[in-house]
Amino acid sequence: MRAAIVGSTGYGGVELIRLLEAHPNVTVTSVVSSSSAGSYYSETFPHLTEIVAGVMDDVDPALIRGKADVVFLATPHGVSAQLAPRFLEAGLKVIDLSGDFRLKDPAAYEAWYKKGAADQAYLDRAVFGMCELFGDEVAGADFVSNPGCFPTATTLGLYPAVKAGWIDPNSIIIDSKTGVSGAGRGLNLSSHFSEVNENLKAYKVNQHQHTPEIEMVLSRAAGRPVTTTFTTHLVPMTRGIMSTMYAAVTDRDRTTGDFLQLYREFYQDRRFIRIRQAGTYPATKEVYGSNYCDIGLNVDARTGRITIISVIDNLVKGAAGQAIQNLNLMMGWDETLGLGFAPVYP
Ligand SMILES: NC(=O)C1=CN([C@@H]2O[C@H](COP(=O)(O)OP(=O)(O)OC[C@H]3O[C@@H](n4cnc5c(N)ncnc54)[C@H](OP(=O)(O)O)[C@@H]3O)[C@@H](O)[C@H]2O)C=CC1
Ligand SMILES: CC(=O)N[C@@H](CCC(=O)OP(=O)(O)O)C(=O)O
């Protein structure tokens, strides 16, 4: 299959190119740039010298349709809303990494993203591709909206317990930390070295655009509307997300062992979800550069609350890796194709 990457000079785009190099069924035939068309990709990314040859293409759906069958949009919010319909109408399959097609209610999108929403017909057409939860819906789709990085770590960590009714969904508090690459490659004040180094900072408190996406998934698990408190923190590392989640257990007789068994059964045969042994908790470095989501948990009988810890690499399971997993599901291939590599450690 031939693939094009739009937004190829960004972090999500360059990670897609790295991962697709190892995919047995996909060849990247077009790297696309709105700002550097005509120049060599390896000039922007010298680490890909002799790996990605050739110059970048302009954002031209008709030209790209001649070179590719699927396009990944690793473009900012607002840009994808404009580009996805053009690529779909040109006859390409589209996998969008932005938040533009995840929420199906345009009013909710506009309230949280502070931008105009995409056309309702395309919002309805885009399948929300949270692979381990709703992967069945992705099979055969031509347009997939890839989930956000925080919603991936967070909802994979909460879904089995909410679905089973073992925690009170409206008691959930989510405390998330992210590395700086989550903010993209563009320069901005809050992500430059001296602002981030030796610093720990909460941001977008009660205003983060991933809140409604997390609530959308949890509401589906609970079968009723769920609201949650979600706080993000920037930490001085490049990659990685850790979501630490707290909730009230509904039956105080249920133990850590009971929850671990529930999670193991829920995710059995799901290669990219690893449930830790009792008493051990995942660290971001243990999934670095990989498509894994690792989950550990503990029930505190004293308080009747559970603590759930979930980690991912924001650029792999939180972006490019899950996007490729979605392509595998769209095409009816084994979902692990091209993604079976171990984390980089240390
Ligand atoms: N970084 C992360 O961890 C994650 C990112 N995402 C989402 O993925 C998307 C990409 O993120 P990321 O790679 O970090 O962002 P970057 O800022 O690193 O890259 C975005 C790229 O989009 C391209 N672009 C900008 N404007 C336009 C335009 N008008 N038309 C076409 N291309 C444009 C630019 O490339 P050029 O100038 O070459 O066209 C730019 O390099 C975003 O929507 C982001 O929210 C999702 C999950 C995790
Ligand atoms: C550090 C940092 O700023 N991270 C970004 C991650 C969001 C992102 O990447 O956007 P998506 O909605 O497409 O997932 C943020 O918190 O907004």
TrEMBL record:
It comes from the Bacteria. Catalyzes the NADPH-dependent reduction of N-acetyl-5-glutamyl phosphate to yield N-acetyl-L-glutamate 5-semialdehyde. One of its GO terms (molecular function) is N-acetyl-gamma-glutamyl-phosphate reductase activity. The keyword Cytoplasm applies. Residues 2-141 form the Semialdehyde dehydrogenase NAD-binding domain. Its EC number is 1.2.1.38. It comes from Cohnella lubricantis. NCBIfam families: argC (TIGR01850). Pathway: Amino-acid biosynthesis; L-arginine biosynthesis; N(2)-acetyl-L-ornithine from L-glutamate: step 3/4. It holds the Pfam family Semialdhyde_dh. The active site is at C149. The lineage of its organism: Bacteria, Bacillati, Bacillota, Bacilli, Bacillales. It is found in: Cytoplasm. GO terms for cellular component: cytoplasm. InterPro entries: AGPR, AGPR_AS, AGPR_dimerisation_dom, AGPR_type-1, NAD(P)-bd_dom_sf, Semialdehyde_DH_NAD-bd. CDD domains: AGPR_1_C, AGPR_1_N. It catalyses: N-acetyl-L-glutamate 5-semialdehyde + phosphate + NADP(+) = N-acetyl-L-glutamyl 5-phosphate + NADPH + H(+). Keywords: Amino-acid biosynthesis, Arginine biosynthesis, Cytoplasm, NADP, Oxidoreductase. SMART domains: Semialdhyde_dh. Belongs to the NAGSA dehydrogenase family. Type 1 subfamily. This is N-acetyl-gamma-glutamyl-phosphate reductase. GO terms for biological process: L-arginine biosynthetic process.
